[in-house]
Amino acid sequence: MTAPASNPLLSDRDVDFQLYEVLDTESLCQLPAFADHSRETFTLFLDSTRRFARDVLLPTYRLMDTEPPSFRDGRIHVHPLMRKLYPQLVELGLLSATHPVEAGGQQLPITVYSLASAYLMAANLSAYGFIGLTTGAAHLIQAFGSPWLKDEFMSRMYRGEWTGTMALTEPQAGSSLADVKTRATPVGDGTYRITGSKIFISGGDQDFTENVVHLTLARIDGAPAGTRGLSLFAVPSRRPEDGRLVDNDVRVAGAIHKIGWKGLPSLALNYGEGGDCRGWLVGEAGKGLAHMFQMMNEARIMVGLNGVATASVAYQEALAYAQNRPQGRPAWEKDAARPQRPIIEHADVRRMLLRQKAIVEGGLSLLAVASWHADVAAHGKTEEERRRAGLLLDLLTPLAKTFPAEKGFEANALAVQVHGGYGYSSEYLPEAYLRDQKLNSIHEGTTGIQGLDLLGRKVMAAGGEAMKAFTEEVGATVERARKAGVEPAWGEALNRALQEVVELTMELGAAGMAGEVERMLRHSADYMELFSVLAVSWRWLVQAAAAREGLARGGEGRDFYEGKLAAAQYWLNTELPRVTHLVALCRSGEDSYTRMRPEWF
Amino acid sequence: MKILVTAKRVEDPESKIKVKPDGSGIVQEGLKYKINPFDEIGVEEGLRLVAKHGGEVVVVSIGGKEVQEQLRHALAMGATRAVWVNHTGPLDQMGVAGLLQKVAEKEKPDLVILGKQAIDDDQNQVGQYLAEFLGWGQATFASKVESLESEQEKNKVPALQMGADNKSVRVVREVDNGLATLECALPAVVTTDLRLNLPRYASLPGIMKAKSKPIEELTPAKLSVDVTPKVQVLKMASPPPRKAGIKVPDVATLVDKLRNEAKVV
Ligand SMILES: Cc1cc2nc3c(=O)[nH]c(=O)nc-3n(C[C@H](O)[C@H](O)[C@H](O)COP(=O)(O)OP(=O)(O)OC[C@H]3O[C@@H](n4cnc5c(N)ncnc54)[C@H](O)[C@@H]3O)c2cc1C
Ligand SMILES: Cc1cc2nc3c(=O)[nH]c(=O)nc-3n(C[C@H](O)[C@H](O)[C@H](O)COP(=O)(O)OP(=O)(O)OC[C@H]3O[C@@H](n4cnc5c(N)ncnc54)[C@H](O)[C@@H]3O)c2cc1C
């Protein structure tokens, strides 16, 4: 069964609110990089993408979920619909939207692109996945590749003629990329002979374009062990030779059967089984991981957006279902002959819906502000502005990746729950979105790895400067909320929680400096949780402020603003107080799981 | 080949439309607007024709400054340039047709394509008036052949086809009892029906190119058209809300009710 055509995927009103009322996205157009843009170009682009997502992509979602790619005769055959969808996605201008005009792009702010692409992800994340991977791979060549690679590979990828992949993971090297073993042996003509195996490579083969370029991490012969020995290579499935494409000895060893993202094949690949796989070095030897990581913020923001999008589409399903499913009567209704009421009239169902709303819209707001800082970090007016935005972006990225993945999963489970028994059935869509969502806490750095990154690196960065910038941002929001007439207790509570987190961070930092690394990182999961709650509370306070400002302007749209204030109240009253508890846990000597020995399980 | 296409600004049917308490109009605040979907189909058809025969698509819209949004939308889809007739205040269908007549006489297109109606007030009059004012042939409700088995559909024959010498147009129209095919000498006026085509989505490169495409500003005075309305809107009101349905025990009761209460059978 397909989704009702009416699923809006995301709320258009909310997207506009995030862009123009919470943030002032139009002001980005004052930066020289975005001078060609205006609210009008943003609106036209958002309009095209959201309509395409609803009219074209959404109806294909279930078909691609139920008919995953097949592996026959050594090749992957994806759903035949991709033959039509991919060129249409390319035609919209998604591949190079945010890139410089010189690279064939349109210099669209990432802030706008992010929110627009969320519709595509919500409609059919697998179909959009091919675009995300190709643009990521092409961007690496654009940033670090030789002119020849740009001409031969990148331009074809941006034109939609070839697709791309990110090939990092190996069976023994998932979270630990330092253990990558794939080898690169210089051939003497500037190219390298590649041998090795990769696993889980998404989009690693398909049958709707003539070629795939794998941006591959490998170790040049003689390079040191660890991450510093890794280099980045462009390895096409078919290589250009004498003006035509010849087989480049990249073999599909198998397709992984997955619980979600079923339209996008994830593959085991073998390079150079026949000794004839060529790779081209991208950027500097030994800088492979560093080059990849330069794109990492963007990639992780994309994962976070996927998390929000997948939670959002399910929330919209649940909302429509709750308005139409009659079941039960109010507890105080004694007359069983009276008709049953739509379940949205039960407070507990509204609790589940409001929690989903708080997660989806709080998450979207977090992604929007992280994207905003990505834009300013790249194109801000002054060096100082760019540096500060960069620090904030680095700090927000693990949160913007993890919160939607973890809490989004909870929101997706609630969407199933609102559907009752029908939610557990594959006749309805929420179960599929629940399966899709799980990936987001695993790829692009697991939640565990994100927690270590946040506490071990990001909050400590630049001698605490990132934390200081974050504190200033929260302070500005508290002030904005006060002026707008938001419930003063909310701002005060946020300030107090922030203070607790700052103090905790200094303590844990000091422990780390004193060599007590285990104690510092022991509660990294709790730290990730409390910082996520704090950051999303910040986003709910700023939304409350913008809603109050909207109400003060008067006129239509009251319902929307009242809904925002109720969701802000829900989050700030029920979630924010958890920060204190989690801070105490991080401080305490609570050591059950660190003490726990494998043999005790 | 030059094709003139209209791009009316209409309320987005997805926004909640409410009549003002005094019945003088609808509440505009908080409404979203878009290009009339039938006009969008017209722009698409125009673009397909010039892709095949060469030439340009010129879009025209009448209204205040805000209609430039709809013109930009059409330009982003691929129209070459735009004409904006700057007019605020009441305007009836004859006024619109009068303005379009002057624009058409100025632009001298081979074909004018309009939506068969606009989805705001669903009038279905402007195309017909315009053909009459210009003294040109008209083919309304251009539509696509529906039967997938038909020869035209199998051979992907479009519903709008130019004659061999580009002096005539063959139009498949939707009529009450099926499809009719008309041949008109050019210049002519065509209005679009829903099934004519699926309009393209404006691409980001198209959107950026549209920024530098010219929009020429005209006014009723410059075009010497008196747009004083002959039709007066007295009052607007929402249709009465639908009453809840009832369940009938059996078919006999249903037939009885249809015959004696509703008096429809
Ligand atoms: C559907 C799908 C698509 C993918 N697409 C791609 C792709 O396109 N390209 C690509 O290169 N990769 C891809 N991956 C791989 C993905 O990035 C890895 O699965 C991920 O990095 C985790 O590695 P792993 O699976 O080996 O798990 P492991 O690293 O074995 O992790 C297992 C568990 O141990 C924990 N753990 C591991 N190390 C530590 C540590 N040091 N400290 C604390 N906890 C730790 C992890 O948090 C996790 O919970 C994809 C994976 C999937 C499932
Ligand atoms: C795999 C499976 C096996 C099953 N096996 C059996 C079986 O063997 N025998 C059998 O008889 N049934 C069986 N069921 C049915 C199951 O018990 C029902 O699905 C369950 O009772 C929920 O009813 P519902 O699906 O109609 O959801 P609904 O009652 O429509 O509930 C939808 C949502 O509304 C909420 N809600 C409903 N009413 C209220 C209220 N008054 N106040 C607050 N919230 C409310 C619910 O909590 C839920 O979140 C099975 C279901 C599944 C999925």
From TrEMBL, chain A:
Molecular function via GO: flavin adenine dinucleotide binding; oxidoreductase activity, acting on the CH-CH group of donors
Residue ranges of every copy of the Acyl-CoA dehydrogenase/oxidase C-terminal domain listed in the record: 286-452
Keyword Oxidoreductase: yes
Family per similarity comment: Belongs to the acyl-CoA dehydrogenase family.
Protein name: Acyl-CoA dehydrogenase
UniProt domain Acyl-CoA dehydrogenase/oxidase N-terminal: residue ranges: 43-161
Residue ranges of domain Acetyl-CoA dehydrogenase-like C-terminal in the record: 470-596
Cofactor: FAD
Organism: Archangium violaceum Cb vi76
InterPro entries reported in the protein's UniProt record: Acyl-CoA_dh-like_C_dom, Acyl-CoA_Oxase/DH_mid-dom, Acyl-CoA_Oxase/DH_mid-dom_sf, AcylCo_DH-like_C, AcylCo_DH/oxidase_C, AcylCoA_DH/ox_N, AcylCoA_DH/ox_N_sf, AcylCoA_DH/oxidase_NM_dom_sf
The keyword Flavoprotein appears for this protein: yes
Domain Acyl-CoA oxidase/dehydrogenase middle positions: 166-266
A Pfam match: Acyl-CoA_dh_1
Lineage, top ranks: Bacteria, Pseudomonadati, Myxococcota, Myxococcia, Myxococcales
Keywords, in A-Z order: FAD, Flavoprotein, Oxidoreductase
Automatic annotation (TrEMBL), chain B:
One GO MF term: electron transfer activity
Keyword Transport included in the entry's annotation: yes
InterPro entries named in the record: ETF_a/b_N, ETF_b, ETF_beta_N, Rossmann-like_a/b/a_fold
Keyword flag Repeat: no
Cofactor entry: AMP
Ranges in a coiled coil: none
Keyword terms of this UniProt record: Electron transport, Transport
Segments forming domain Electron transfer flavoprotein alpha/beta-subunit N-terminal: 23-227
Source domain of life: Bacteria
UniProt GO BP: carboxylic acid catabolic process
PANTHER family, A to Z: ELECTRON TRANSFER FLAVOPROTEIN BETA-SUBUNIT (PTHR21294), ELECTRON TRANSFER FLAVOPROTEIN SUBUNIT BETA (PTHR21294:SF8)
Family: Belongs to the ETF beta-subunit/FixA family.
Primary role: The electron transfer flavoprotein serves as a specific electron acceptor for other dehydrogenases. It transfers the electrons to the main respiratory chain via ETF-ubiquinone oxidoreductase (ETF dehydrogenase).
Subunit structure: Heterodimer of an alpha and a beta subunit.
Protein's recorded name: Electron transfer flavoprotein subunit beta
Top-level taxonomy: Bacteria, Pseudomonadati, Myxococcota, Myxococcia, Myxococcales
